[in-house]
Amino acid sequence: MIEVNMGTDPLLKRAFSLFRKTDEGLQILYRVRGKGTGILRNMKEGTVLDMLGPLGNFYPMPPEDKIPLVIAGGIGIASVFSLVERLAGRSIVFYGARTKDDLLMSKELKVYAKELIVSTDDGSAGLKGTAADALQAFLSSHSSAPPHFCIYACGPQPLLKALAQIAKEYRIRTYVSMEEHMACGIGACLGCVVKTYEGYKRVCKEGPVMNAMEIVW
Amino acid sequence: MTKGLFVTIRDLELKNPVMTASGTFGYGEEYAEFLDLSRLGAVVVKGLSLAPKEGNPPPRIVETASGMLNAIGLQNIGIERFIHEKIPFLRTYDTKIIVNFFGDSIDEYVAAAERLSAVDGIHGLEMNISCPNKQAGWCIFGTDPRVTSEVVQAVRKATALPLIVKLSPNVTDISVIARAAVDAGADALSVINTLTGMAIDIRTRKPKLANRTGGLSGPAIKPVAVRMVYEIYKAVEVPIIGMGGIMTAEDALEFIIAGASAVAVGTANFIHPTAAVDILDGISAFLAQERIADINMLRGTAHAC
Fold it and tell me: What superfamily does domain B3-55+73-196+218-304 belong to in CATH?
């Protein structure tokens, strides 16, 4: 959770995923979308911000015999990038964005991933369609193989929902990083819940990474 | 502990006037790694009902200008689990534990109050009367002086603990409700609960909260809350716990000068987990600066002019 200003508007801290850790410290990758990220963009270098974290869980590492399929939709790349980095050459990355210009970190992804499959909504780069469409195509061409994959995903809710459907069909263990409006980030406000088959779970505490099969989509 | 910060709510002795507002501090343990709970005058825990409650579907919160709307839907683990899983932890701290509770009928309020009164380690009860009465056409208990009186009277008979009634600000004249609660046996009043509000997404043309409406909290409501404390101080004799948008010690002091005996820090906990103790330190510093030996000397001083 990062405080973007010292005043009361906007009031709450913002939740960001940790993009990656370098020798210089932690990095956040964000897309300017609303009031908070708008303020962040105009901030002077060297500005000191209040931060609370790291909070919540991370993607569990796959067993040795599984091939990790990492799916990112749009700015969801910020959440899965460090996973791809950590999986050093093991993962197949499906990265979907609106247009060619929205694709970030392509060069680095090519270095850390075993394979990078890009898709764009308008077809300006890679396959035309979403990352779920790309995954579907990939799996149907590998359908004779036993379910030796596992999936990690972050992106807009409709994408995650589509992935959960695909994963169910192919019986692949799938971890999704969820997003909800969040106030405290430490499990107190009960604002950021998602519905699961075991009741509401907090994105900040039990998540953000959850098993896709647990979630009532 | 500073002697000059000591306040009392009936026979409930608080080492200082800073408490946490129900629903913003979980069951205390969520904040224990950020601050020493023993420094607080009291911990007021998240509202409880006899049976666990699942709460509302998301989105449950939305940020607004200098505030936030919430429609959590009173999600809680239920009184029994609270007693067994949370009280033992809370009892390890040297602070007063005040349990906020609610029901959807008078019988439920009474049963909850009886159960909580039988537990060691609970020092006071805070009644949430801003919820609907399912037995009487879903009207809100706390928006009608007669219904307020009826439910408070029934609970009063069921408990010997200090009984604080938390008032809804969504009424025409809050002093009338305050009077009714006090006449029915309330030992103190919490002023105020959230203000009902709404925010709409102009693209989808839909309310931003799944519940459509929610409770507004944060700095945006502070002037309304201060005014209500001021009015109620004139109308009744019992201690008032002031709350609504307190972010700083200065905010807290405004409430005390308006007439509050104690204050509760709410939404600020979400932004700065140490907010309650930061505010307490600020109050101490102010008293020292202004050479005020006892915080009780400050209470209601706005009424002198």
Answer: Aldolase class I (3.20.20.70)
